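Entry 12.
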Amino acid sequence: MAEQKLNAPARAQYAIRRSPSAHPAGVHQVTEFQDPGYTIVGNHLTQHRSLSGLAIGLAAYIQSLPEGAPVDIRTLAKRFPEGRGRIAAALRELEAYGYLERVRQRTDDGRMVTRTISYNNPEATRARRARETAEQAKRRTATEPVPAAAPTTASRAPAPAAEPPRVRTSPRPVRTEAPHVRAQPSRVRAEPAPPPPEPRTRAHHPPAAALLANLRRDDPRLLLSVRDIHRLTPPLAAWLERGATPEAVRRALTTGLPDTLRHPAALLAHRLTELLPPPLPAASPAARPRARPAPLQTCDGCERAFRAPGPGRCRDCRDPAAERGAA
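Predicted 3D structure (tokens):
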């Protein structure tokens, strides 16, 4: 047998067995003081039995971010190796248990943004809000005026007896005031009413109906039924009454048609209503055509240009000739 040496060091396993700690297995905490740059996370979150590990990690990460930091799915997917699907599912878990709330709101410039609200202790937040609601209800009750005491049986008895005479005697004063009340509507009726619109002539209806029926020659898809032609004839006649030529109306209705035309009558009705031209303005005296000046002629005597209805001599050449003829 080998010689026993009492000063030989013990093996590691014997050191573990002889450890004075009451929990030799499991986690051992090594706590160090942290300078600024730490986040307080409650055990209700880190030890939550219904949340997944990814959800707990995202909640702790979101609580460590500064105010206004982006926490949308795209940004979180760039930060963590998990995909967008798993991150979206984890965020839904946090919303279900109250650790996260996402609200859609409109900014001052009209854009829609998502505002994310993170709760580090949702149970405490709900309790605080419940207390505030109860305190507000108590203040509201304290500030409300106390209702008047209900009348006694003796004071309530005469009231029904005194009310019927008032109802029975009220019709006569109302009848006396009725003529005075009816006088006000008469003043309103006496005001001059706006002139009724001029009746539209039906002289343009036959040309309008013929133009609608001939639209299928330009495009076979514009084949209209008799009912559609009767319905579209009055608005097309308004175009003709305002001075639009049939060719201009045809171009306005058939130009730029879509590739797929399912309801031609509805399209024509829309164009006739939206593209209606304004009426022609009345001709003013200043707009009347002026008389054209006489054309330019070449004088037969001095070959100068002058204005006259026909060829001949200018005024300077005619005056000496007139004087010699008179002499």
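Annotation: Residues 205-256+263-274 form one domain. Residues 12-19, 167-171, 173-190, 194-199 have pLDDT under 50 and may be disordered.
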